[in-house]
Amino acid sequence: MQGSCPKVSIIGAGAVGATLAQRIFESNLADVVLVDILEKVACGKALDLMDGAPIMATERSILGTGDYAAVADSDIVVITAGLARKPGMSREDLISKNAAIVKDVSCQVKRYAPSSIVIVVTNPLDSMAYLVYKTTGFKREKVLGMAGVLDGSRFIALIADDLKVPRASITAMVLGSHGDTMVPVVSKTFVGGEPLTKLMAKDRIESIIKRTCNRGAEIVSCLGTGSAYYSPSAAVFSMVKAILRDTKEIMTVSAYLEGEFGLKDIYIGVPCRIGRAGIEEVLEIDLSDEESSAFHRSAQAIRQSIASHLLC
Ligand code: APR
């Protein structure tokens, strides 16, 4: 830890960034800096959060700014800057505009917070995490993308709702890209220790998988403008907590692979041990043949996206 109190900087004070700031600040987890190209928006949200601090009983500090110098000495920098989807758009449709923003933000992070751990949230997630990794030149354990924690939570919430069981009784994971090709891993999904396949018919499982994959789009179409932010910010919050508290828990995050799962030079969602160093281990779990093929198809989709938009 680089000071007495940990410091988390959040780039992008929009829906995801500001909600994450609120979660971190109000839980007393860390001091928070909110940076946005719209400086006054970042300032206003930070002042608003500070005004509630006595009520929420937090002693942490919060600052809103447009100046990247304020991110110096951050333990963690979270990148949420960029455009969100509109109804009818896929996450991929955001790539050219968000790549320009994320590249610029990465240069600032490298300059002002070279020893931070970076959590990428901007979509399309796996390509943006790859871009941050390449632009900052940080070690792979220090650049991770948020997706699997969110997609896994969506999968669990839908299963619990269908089976009418407590959410805490379910363990599940969603690997692969944070996109249309994500892979909810049925062989690793258990309800009270029982395999999901013993408790639910195949067509019902397939329908929940489809709903999990489309959940982001379903929310975008309800909201009309903007995309999900309560659950994405909750997912990032859990990752920030795992890092700052060095919990070593297993979380699915988008990680740079160097041969694991037979893949190299790619960011993709895989189970990892998360602790104070960031990604402390990539866990090469066994997948069924069908799941392994779906995972590799997902990797192919990420590679295509990177090749056609980021490498040209
Ligand atoms: N530097 C800093 N902030 C920027 C920059 C930049 N170059 N460009 C845009 N921003 C800011 C915007 O001013 C805005 O406040 O990023 C913020 C994005 O906020 P929202 O539009 O509310 O989007 P949000 O819902 O937070 O989603 C952000 O996360 O989940 C993903 O798909 C989502 O890519 C999107 C990102």
Give the CATH superfamily of the largest domain: Lactate dehydrogenase/glycoside hydrolase, family 4, C-terminal
The residue ranges in which pLDDT falls below 50 over 5 or more consecutive positions are none
**Shape designation:** globular
Q: List the total number of helices.
A: 10
Kindly report the average pLDDT value: 96
Q: What is the CATH level 1 assignment of the largest domain?
A: Alpha Beta
**How much helix, percentage-wise, in residues?**
40-55%
Q: Main beta sheet, described?
A: 6 strands, parallel
Measured on Cα atoms, how large is the radius of gyration? 19 Å
**Distance between termini?**
39 Å
Instruction: Provide the succession of SSEs.
Output: EHEHHEEHEHEHEEEEEHHHEEEH
Question: What does this entry show, briefly?
Answer:
By secondary structure, the protein is α/β, with parallel strands linked by helices. The protein is 44% helix and 20% strand. Helix 1 crosses helix 9 (230-244), helix 4 (95-112) runs parallel beside helix 5 and helix 6 (148-163) packs across helix 8 (202-223).
What's the topology here?
Elements: E1 7-11, H1 15-26, E2 31-35, H2 39-51, H3 53-56, E3 62-65, E4 76-79, H4 95-112, E5 117-120, H5 125-136, E6 143-145, H6 148-163, E7 170-171, E8 174-175, E9 183-184, E10 190-191, E11 194-195, H7 196-199, H8 202-223, H9 230-244, E12 249-258, E13 264-275, E14 278-282, H10 289-309
Parallel strand pairs: 1-2, 1-4, 2-3, 4-5, 5-6
Antiparallel strand pairs: 7-10, 8-9, 10-11, 12-13, 13-14
Helix pairs in contact: 1-2, 1-9, 4-5, 6-8
Bound molecules: adenosine-5-diphosphoribose.
